[in-house]
Protein backbone atom coordinates (compact mmCIF):
# COMPACT_ATOMS: atom_id res chain seq x y z
CA UNK A 1 0.00 0.00 0.00
CA UNK A 2 1.44 3.37 -1.03
CA UNK A 3 0.59 5.54 1.94
CA UNK A 4 2.83 8.53 2.52
CA UNK A 5 2.89 10.61 5.61
CA UNK A 6 3.82 14.28 5.68
CA UNK A 7 3.34 15.31 9.29
CA UNK A 8 -0.43 15.78 9.32
CA UNK A 9 -1.29 15.09 5.67
CA UNK A 10 -1.85 11.51 4.67
CA UNK A 11 -2.07 10.39 1.07
CA UNK A 12 -3.21 7.22 -0.61
CA UNK A 13 -2.94 7.22 -4.38
CA UNK A 14 -5.09 10.11 -5.69
CA UNK A 15 -6.53 10.94 -2.27
CA UNK A 16 -5.35 13.13 0.56
CA UNK A 17 -6.63 13.70 4.06
CA UNK A 18 -6.76 17.39 3.10
CA UNK A 19 -9.28 16.78 0.30
CA UNK A 20 -13.01 17.01 0.73
CA UNK A 21 -14.14 13.70 -0.76
CA UNK A 22 -17.62 12.65 -1.91
CA UNK A 23 -18.01 8.97 -2.86
CA UNK A 24 -21.17 8.21 -4.80
CA UNK A 25 -22.66 4.79 -5.55
CA UNK A 26 -21.00 2.65 -2.93
CA UNK A 27 -21.64 -1.09 -2.83
CA UNK A 28 -20.44 -2.59 0.45
CA UNK A 29 -18.55 0.64 1.38
CA UNK A 30 -15.19 -1.13 1.18
CA UNK A 31 -13.87 1.54 -1.22
CA UNK A 32 -14.61 4.37 1.26
CA UNK A 33 -13.06 2.40 4.08
CA UNK A 34 -9.76 2.22 2.19
CA UNK A 35 -8.83 5.96 2.34
CA UNK A 36 -10.51 6.24 5.75
CA UNK A 37 -8.16 3.55 7.11
CA UNK A 38 -5.14 5.11 5.37
CA UNK A 39 -5.95 8.56 6.83
CA UNK A 40 -6.90 7.15 10.25
CA UNK A 41 -9.94 9.44 9.98
CA UNK A 42 -12.82 10.08 7.60
CA UNK A 43 -14.08 13.45 8.75
CA UNK A 44 -13.29 14.73 5.22
CA UNK A 45 -15.32 11.97 3.51
CA UNK A 46 -19.00 11.69 2.62
CA UNK A 47 -19.85 8.17 1.43
CA UNK A 48 -23.19 7.40 -0.16
CA UNK A 49 -25.19 4.45 -1.42
CA UNK A 50 -28.32 4.34 -3.49
CA UNK A 51 -29.31 1.30 -1.41
CA UNK A 52 -31.05 1.64 1.94
CA UNK A 53 -29.42 0.14 5.05
CA UNK A 54 -31.87 -2.73 4.81
CA UNK A 55 -30.96 -3.46 1.18
CA UNK A 56 -27.25 -3.22 1.93
CA UNK A 57 -27.40 -5.75 4.74
CA UNK A 58 -29.31 -8.18 2.53
CA UNK A 59 -26.95 -7.79 -0.45
CA UNK A 60 -23.48 -7.57 1.04
CA UNK A 61 -22.19 -9.45 4.05
CA UNK A 62 -19.62 -6.81 5.08
CA UNK A 63 -21.60 -3.67 4.33
CA UNK A 64 -22.83 -2.88 7.82
CA UNK A 65 -19.48 -3.67 9.46
CA UNK A 66 -17.80 -1.34 6.95
CA UNK A 67 -20.41 1.37 7.56
CA UNK A 68 -19.94 1.08 11.30
CA UNK A 69 -16.14 1.41 10.95
CA UNK A 70 -16.58 4.43 8.67
CA UNK A 71 -18.91 6.05 11.18
CA UNK A 72 -16.32 5.51 13.90
CA UNK A 73 -13.77 7.26 11.67
CA UNK A 74 -16.15 10.24 11.52
CA UNK A 75 -17.39 9.64 7.97
CA UNK A 76 -20.69 11.17 6.87
CA UNK A 77 -22.51 8.05 5.58
CA UNK A 78 -25.74 8.54 3.65
CA UNK A 79 -28.12 5.98 2.18
CA UNK A 80 -30.85 6.17 -0.47
CA UNK A 81 -29.00 9.34 -1.38
CA UNK A 82 -29.83 11.29 -4.45
CA UNK A 83 -26.23 12.42 -3.81
CA UNK A 84 -24.60 13.59 -6.93
CA UNK A 85 -21.34 15.31 -7.65
CA UNK A 86 -23.28 17.92 -9.63
CA UNK A 87 -25.15 18.87 -6.43
CA UNK A 88 -21.88 19.90 -4.83
CA UNK A 89 -20.69 23.41 -5.45
CA UNK A 90 -17.84 23.22 -7.93
CA UNK A 91 -14.66 25.14 -7.70
CA UNK A 92 -11.64 25.31 -9.95
CA UNK A 93 -9.32 22.38 -9.33
CA UNK A 94 -12.04 19.96 -8.26
CA UNK A 95 -11.65 16.56 -9.84
CA UNK A 96 -14.10 13.75 -10.50
CA UNK A 97 -12.94 10.16 -10.65
CA UNK A 98 -14.94 7.35 -12.15
CA UNK A 99 -14.15 3.70 -12.52
CA UNK A 100 -16.10 1.85 -15.16
CA UNK A 101 -15.94 -0.92 -17.67
CA UNK A 102 -15.20 0.13 -21.22
CA UNK A 103 -16.42 -2.88 -23.18
CA UNK A 104 -19.90 -3.05 -24.74
CA UNK A 105 -22.54 -2.26 -23.42
CA UNK A 106 -20.68 0.05 -21.01
CA UNK A 107 -18.98 1.79 -23.91
CA UNK A 108 -22.45 3.00 -24.97
CA UNK A 109 -22.58 5.18 -21.86
CA UNK A 110 -20.15 7.52 -23.60
CA UNK A 111 -18.86 8.81 -20.32
CA UNK A 112 -16.53 11.36 -21.91
CA UNK A 113 -19.42 12.92 -23.82
CA UNK A 114 -21.61 13.01 -20.68
CA UNK A 115 -18.84 14.68 -18.71
CA UNK A 116 -18.23 17.22 -21.48
CA UNK A 117 -21.92 18.12 -21.45
CA UNK A 118 -21.44 18.99 -17.76
CA UNK A 119 -18.54 21.26 -18.61
CA UNK A 120 -15.87 18.80 -17.50
CA UNK A 121 -12.66 17.98 -19.29
CA UNK A 122 -10.85 14.65 -19.32
CA UNK A 123 -7.46 15.13 -17.72
CA UNK A 124 -6.27 11.55 -17.48
CA UNK A 125 -7.49 8.06 -18.24
CA UNK A 126 -5.88 4.96 -16.82
CA UNK A 127 -6.62 1.85 -18.82
CA UNK A 128 -6.20 -0.52 -15.91
CA UNK A 129 -7.60 -0.24 -12.43
CA UNK A 130 -5.09 -1.69 -9.96
CA UNK A 131 -7.13 -3.33 -7.24
CA UNK A 132 -4.00 -3.81 -5.12
CA UNK A 133 -3.70 0.00 -4.85
CA UNK A 134 -6.86 0.03 -2.74
CA UNK A 135 -6.42 -2.47 0.09
CA UNK A 136 -9.68 -3.89 1.38
CA UNK A 137 -11.74 -2.78 -1.63
CA UNK A 138 -13.88 -5.46 -3.22
CA UNK A 139 -15.92 -4.51 -6.29
CA UNK A 140 -19.60 -5.47 -5.99
CA UNK A 141 -22.44 -5.92 -8.40
CA UNK A 142 -25.34 -3.54 -7.91
CA UNK A 143 -28.16 -6.04 -8.05
CA UNK A 144 -29.20 -9.62 -8.63
CA UNK A 145 -28.58 -12.77 -6.64
CA UNK A 146 -24.87 -12.47 -7.28
CA UNK A 147 -24.60 -8.96 -5.75
CA UNK A 148 -22.10 -10.18 -3.18
C1 LIG B 1 -21.65 -2.10 -10.16
S1 LIG B 1 -22.20 -1.45 -8.63
C2 LIG B 1 -20.65 -0.92 -7.95
C3 LIG B 1 -20.71 -0.68 -6.47
C4 LIG B 1 -19.46 -0.05 -5.86
N1 LIG B 1 -19.23 1.30 -6.39
C5 LIG B 1 -18.25 -0.92 -6.06
O1 LIG B 1 -17.31 -0.48 -6.73
O2 LIG B 1 -18.22 -2.03 -5.52
C6 LIG B 1 -22.98 0.09 -9.11
C7 LIG B 1 -23.54 0.87 -7.93
O3 LIG B 1 -24.05 2.13 -8.41
C8 LIG B 1 -25.22 2.44 -7.68
N2 LIG B 1 -26.01 3.39 -8.46
C9 LIG B 1 -26.69 3.16 -9.61
N3 LIG B 1 -27.30 4.27 -10.03
C10 LIG B 1 -27.00 5.25 -9.14
C11 LIG B 1 -27.33 6.62 -9.03
N4 LIG B 1 -28.11 7.22 -9.93
N5 LIG B 1 -26.85 7.33 -7.99
C12 LIG B 1 -26.05 6.73 -7.07
N6 LIG B 1 -25.70 5.42 -7.12
C13 LIG B 1 -26.17 4.69 -8.14
C14 LIG B 1 -25.88 1.10 -7.45
O4 LIG B 1 -26.74 1.13 -6.32
C15 LIG B 1 -24.68 0.18 -7.23
O5 LIG B 1 -24.39 0.05 -5.87
UniProtKB/TrEMBL annotation:
One GO process term, biological-process aspect: rRNA base methylation
InterPro entries tied to this protein: BMT5-like
GO molecular function, one term: rRNA (uridine-N3-)-methyltransferase activity
Recorded GO CC terms: cytoplasm
Ranges of residues in domain 25S rRNA (uridine-N(3))-methyltransferase BMT5-like: 22-80, 92-141
Domain of life: Eukaryota
Pfam family, one: BMT5-like
Stated name of the protein: 25S rRNA (uridine-N(3))-methyltransferase BMT5-like domain-containing protein
Species of origin: Brassica oleracea var. oleracea
